[in-house]
Amino acid sequence: MKKPEILCIGGSAGSYHLILDLLATIPTQFQIPLVVIIHRNERYDSKIEENLDKRIALRVKVAEDKEAIQAGTIYFAPAGYHLLIEPDFTFSLDISAPLNFCRPAIDVTFETAAEAYQDLCCGILLSGANQDGAKGLMRIHEFGGNCLVQDPVEAEISTMPQAALTLWPAHPIYTYNELKKIIIQMTYSN
C-alpha cells in the first residue's frame, strides 16, 4: 500500500468509540491529513473535536469552509453539512439535501477526496446502519486509491461495510485492530 496524502474515515452507528480509540493511538509523527465523517445530529452539540483536541497530540478541529487542508491535522465533518474536498485541496461545506438520510454523508466526502487526491487517497469504512460510504469507497478505488473495510462480522452494525462489499466484493477486509496497525504503519512509510 502506498502512503496516502489524505486519509478519510467514515462511520455511523457502532463506530463512534472505535474512531475515538483509533485517533487516540495515532503517533504524533503522523503527517497525513485525516478527515472523519461520522453521522451525527446537528441539534446536539457533541464537542467531539474540542474534547479530542485536549486528549491527543495531533490538532483536532471541525473542518471549515474554504480552509486549506493541512498535514498532521484531524478534521471532522461538521454536523448539518456535507463536507467536500476541492481540487485545490481546500474544504467546502454544502447544505444540499441529505444523502442516505445523512448530512454529512460519507459518500460525498469520499467521492470528492478521490477526485482531488486520486490514487493518493485512502478511505476506511467502519460500522454503520445504512449504505452510506459504499459508493464513495468505490470511487476511491476507481481512482486507484486505497480502500479498507472493517470486517462486517466484527462490526457492531454490519450494514455499512457489507454494502461496500456488495458493491465491490474485492475490497480488502480488516479487523479493527488490523486497521489500527495499518494507520500506525502509514506514519512511518515513505
Automatic annotation (TrEMBL):
Listed CDD domains: CheB (cd16433)
Coiled-coil ranges from the UniProt annotation: none
GO cellular component labels: cytoplasm
Record: active site: S12, H39, D132
EC main group: hydrolase
Keyword Protease: no
Annotated ranges, domain CheB-type methylesterase: 1-190
A GO MF term: protein-glutamate methylesterase activity
Catalytic activity: [protein]-L-glutamate 5-O-methyl ester + H2O = L-glutamyl-[protein] + methanol + H(+)
Entry superkingdom: Bacteria
Listed name of the protein: protein-glutamate methylesterase
Species, as recorded: Rhinopithecimicrobium faecis
